[in-house]
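Re: [ENG-882] Designed sequences occasionally contain unexpected residues at chain ends

Forwarding the minimal case from QA. Structure tokens:
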């Protein structure tokens, strides 16, 4: 039998025991000099870091992305440079509203985050399992999230707040329809699509820009859970997703997705009936067909969940040359929010943690010092710690700059309200009337009614009026389910939800 290695303190000196405190006599008291004890207790006190303010419950795998089709006419991003090229990927899927201990099988949107460790740095695709979102301006995001989290007095989730907010933001009906459809509770992350959701840009080596949408389509098929099935699963286990992913990887049954892009020229973007940078809208497939790009295969269970999944810092501003942003107002707000959240949640040098450090490109920057600065910026000469310098420190590469973006010369700075119009109802109408079949519509009516059941009459009527603008049958179906009570249990995780009376 090989000799087991010696246990040490964090400073590397051997432990003599890992069982007993150092005491004055067998009955104590404990000596303050017992550094081992103090270290052990102090470390336990620091085992938790703040959970993500949203998307706190998550599941992650490691895998590989392989290019299957040439898209170099759209992008010079090196990860797409040739068919067969492989790039390492770290995924994290999540629910949005629940805390880090929430049950996996809850009705909610799912996050779909991918970190591609490319040779030009990390590209993060921080999307959802829905191609759109509830709101179109980041200014409303904190309000929206507040309605998804707990009421300050009852400390319960509040459908009253959710439907109160949604009915005053009718552009949300597209996303709420998807949330209440069958796809509102995927069986597992393997059984759902992922979408970049926002419009992004790509540019090629000629400096031509195209607008793009990213779609990751599941190979496992869409499998979803009814509210009743989800309740049954949660009764047995809160960790159904983690368990399913674990077994899939253990059995060699690796989940896969095909990446497609939709492409729009800058000229086309001026002509669409809807704003192509509005996150509450999809680009119809007939007008902007899906173009295959490659295959994503997730094949490895991370060795340490905390190190790779909890410490993962995904951010839409992690882009690489050849991929860029768009004017989407939500995306622009996100470009601030994520790195700020990471500095708070993980610390100043979060990018140097193993989950986030580029694996296939070198990091060279002039940021200096700060908490947990455990790495050096040694560019070969200790004098090269500012820029410009005479010591051969790293310099910028102008060729990585994206092409200039032409802005409407008539544009003025202001706060622009987008008035509600039928444009907001066209796409949910198509989803409701043309994509869903009769049985799916029936389940949508019941799921929606279940979610609304605890809500006050006033808010119910406001939301039913929004549904009527989508399609009269939609409103009628949900109203019928509400009136007959034929809708099963409320599908959102709540209990009593009477609005709390204000104090005198
Ligand atoms: P298509 O008929 O070409 O596409 C319909 C899309 O709807 C397919 O991507 C399908 O996904 C998806 N879908 C089916 N059931 C649901 C559901 N319950 N929740 C969410 N998506 C679902 O039509 P259009 O491109 O013109 O889009 C029509 C409507 O479909 C849109 O207004 C939007 O609501 C929805 N949709 C559109 C997408 C797009 O990018 N164009 C993407 C996703 C939804 P799959 O093929 O994987 O089964
Ligand atoms: C996580 C902010 C919209 C997808 C987060 C986090 C913040 C945040 C602060 C926590 C980050 C962390 O601690 O690591 C915002 C803001 C938004 C917005 C301000 C709007 C202005 C969106 C949209 C999507 C999205 C539209 C999807 C299309 C995600 C995902 C995560 C996340 C997937 C989890 C990332 C992970 O797995 O670590 N968001 N978000 N968010 N957000 Fe957003």
């Amino acid at each position: 039998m090989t000799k087991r290695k010696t246990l040490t303190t964090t400073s590397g000196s051997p432990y003599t025991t890992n069982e007993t405190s150092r005491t004055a006599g067998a009955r104590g008291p404990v000596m303050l000099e017992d550094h081992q004890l103090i270290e052990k207790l102090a470390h336990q006190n620091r085992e938790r870091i703040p959970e993500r303010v949203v998307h706190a419950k998550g599941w992650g795998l490691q895998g590989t992305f392989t290019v299957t089709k040439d898209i170099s006419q759209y992008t010079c991003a090196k990860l797409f440079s040739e068919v067969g090229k492989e790039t390492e990927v770290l995924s994290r899927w999540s629910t949005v509203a629940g805390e880090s201990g929430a049950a996996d099988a809850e009705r909610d949107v799912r996050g779909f985050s991918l970190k591609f460790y490319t040779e030009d740095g990390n590209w993060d695709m921080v999307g959802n399992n829905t191609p759109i979102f509830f709101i179109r301006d980041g200014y409303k995001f904190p309000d929206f999230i507040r309605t998804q989290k707990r009421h300050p007095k009852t400390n319960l989730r509040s459908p009253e707040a959710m439907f109160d907010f949604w009915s005053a933001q009718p552009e949300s009906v597209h996303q709420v329809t998807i949330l209440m459809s069958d796809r509102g509770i995927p069986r597992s992350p393997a059984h759902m699509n992922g979408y970049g959701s926002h419009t992004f840009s790509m540019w090629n080596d000629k400096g031509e820009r195209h607008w793009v949408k990213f779609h990751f389509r599941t190979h496992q098929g869409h499998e979803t859970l009814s509210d009743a099935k989800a309740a049954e699963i949660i009764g047995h286990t809160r960790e159904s997703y983690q368990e399913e992913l674990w077994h899939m990887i253990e059995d060699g049954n690796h989940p896969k997705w095909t990446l497609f892009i939709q492409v729009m020229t800058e000229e086309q973007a001026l002509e669409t009936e809807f704003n192509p940078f509005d996150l509450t809208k999809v680009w119809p497939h007939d007008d902007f067909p899906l173009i295959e790009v490659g295959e994503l295969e997730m094949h490895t269970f991370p060795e340490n969940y905390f190190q790779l999944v909890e410490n993962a810092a995904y951010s839409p501003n992690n882009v690489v040359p050849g991929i860029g942003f768009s004017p989407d107002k939500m995306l622009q707000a996100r470009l601030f929010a994520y790195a700020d959240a990471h500095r708070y949640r993980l610390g100043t040098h979060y990018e140097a943690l193993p989950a986030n450090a580029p694996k296939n490109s070198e990091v060279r920057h002039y940021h200096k010092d700060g908490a947990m600065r455990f790495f050096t910026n040694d560019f070969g000469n200790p004098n090269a710690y500012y820029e410009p310098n005479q010591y051969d420190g790293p310099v910028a590469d102008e060729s990585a700059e994206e092409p200039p973006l032409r802005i409407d010369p008539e544009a003025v700075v202001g706060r622009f309200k987008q008035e509600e119009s039928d444009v907001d109802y066209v796409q949910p109408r198509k989803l409701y009337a043309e994509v869903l079949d009769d049985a799916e519509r029936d389940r949508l009516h019941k799921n929606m009614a279940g979610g609304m059941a605890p809500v006050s009459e006033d808010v119910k009527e406001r939301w039913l009026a929004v549904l009527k603008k989508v399609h009269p049958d939609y409103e009628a179906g949900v109203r019928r389910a509400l009136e007959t009570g034929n809708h099963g249990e409320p599908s959102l995780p709540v209990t009593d939800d009477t609005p709390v009376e204000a104090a005198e």
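QA comment: On inspection the terminal residues look reasonable. The two ends are 75 Å apart (CA to CA). Proposing we downgrade this to a documentation issue.
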